[in-house]
Write a structure and sequence with these properties.
The protein is of the alpha+beta class. The protein has a domain at about 115-280 and about 310-325: OmpA-like domain (60s Ribosomal Protein L30, Chain: A), CATH 3.30.1330. Helices cover about 35% and strands about 10% of the residues. The chain contains 9 helices and 5 strands; from the N terminus they run αααααββαβαββαα. It has helices at about 25-45, 50-60, 65-70, 105-135, 135-140, 175-190, 215-230, 270-280, 315-320; strands spanning about 145-150, 155-160, 195-200, 240-245, 265-270. A 5-stranded mixed beta sheet has the order 1-2-5-3-4. Strand 3, helix 7 and strand 4 (about 240-245) form a beta-alpha-beta unit. About 20% of the residues are buried. Residues about 290-305 and about 320-340 have low confidence and may be disordered. Belongs to the MotB family. It is a single-pass membrane protein. One of its GO terms (cellular component) is plasma membrane.
Length: about 350
Amino acid sequence: MDNNQPIIVKRVKKTAGGHHGGAWKIAFADFMTAMMAFFLVMWLMSSATPEQKRAISGYFQDPIGFTESASPHVIDLGGTPTPSPDRTLNPEIDPAVPQADVQIDGDQVETLAEQIERERLELLLQELQNKVDENPELERFKDQILFEITKDGLRIQIMDDENRPMFALGSAQLQPYFEDILLAMGDTIRAVPNKISISGHTDAKPYAGNGDFGNWELSANRANAARRTLIAGRYPEEQIARVVGYASSALFDRKNPLNPINRRIDILVLTKKAQRNIENEQFVPAEGDDASKAPAAPANPSAPAGASGEPLSPGQVRERLNIFDEGVLKLDQPRPAGGDDQ
C-alpha cells in the first residue's frame, strides 16, 4: 500500500548571540563620576569651617549678589599655610596656642607711611591736572601752571607770563584770573589733610623803588596775598604751615634771571616729614627749656565769607579781600619810581 503522505523536514538554524554594545560602560562611568563628586562634596563639607559653610549657603541662596560683593572662591584651596580656625592637619601647630605677633620696626613703618603718602599726592596731582584740562577758564593758563612731585611733597608753581602777569606792576595786587586759579586749586587741595607752604619769587631785576622796600618784601607780600585768597576761598587757615618770600634767590630759569617765569608763586603740599622739619625749625627749645612751653601760634581772624557762611565768589573775593587797592600799602610798600616789571 502506497504512503502518499508528504514528509516534512524542520531545519532549525542555530546562530550565536550577537554583540550587546558598550552602553553599560557609559552608564557606569556616569555613576562613578557622580560618586566621586559626592565624596568630594562630603570631604569639603567635613573640612570646611562654620564661616565657610555660611559662605557656601550664601552663594547658593544668591549667586549673583554673592559674586558681586564677595570673593568667588568660597573655600581656599590655594595651599595657604594659615591653619583652619577649628582644626589643623599639622600636628606641629596647636591652634589653641596664640601665635606671636609680627614685629615691624620703626623704619619699615616710616617707609610704608611715606609710600602711602606719595600715592595720595600722586592722586592729588592727577586730580589737579584733570581740573585744569576740564575747566575752560583754567585751560587757558595751563602753560603757566606746573605740577611736580618732590621729596618734600607736591609742588604747584604758578608762573608769570610777559603778557599775563599774576600781579599788578611792582605790587602785591592780584590779577582777577590769578585769583580764580588760586580758588580753584584751593578747593581741590583742601581735600587732603597735608599742610601747605606758600612762597613768593621775583626775577633778578632790582626793585625800582627807594627806601628799605625791595624784592624780598615784594615776594613776601605776594605770597601773603596768595594766602589771603586761599583763606577767602574757605581753605583751612590751620593747614598753612609757612608763608615766605625768596626774592630772586631761587630762580626757575637760572640762565636767564630776567625771564618772567622767575616771577611765580609756589604752593607746596607738604609731606609729613617736611612738615615736621618746618615745625622743628620754627621752635627749637634751648637747653633746659621745657618744650611744652613753646609759644602758641597767635589766633588769626576768620576768613571773610558771605552772610550765609558760604564761600565767596571770585568777584566777591576781589571786592572784599584785596587790601592793596587805593594805596593802602603806601606806608610800608613804596611804589616803583620807574618802569618795573616785577
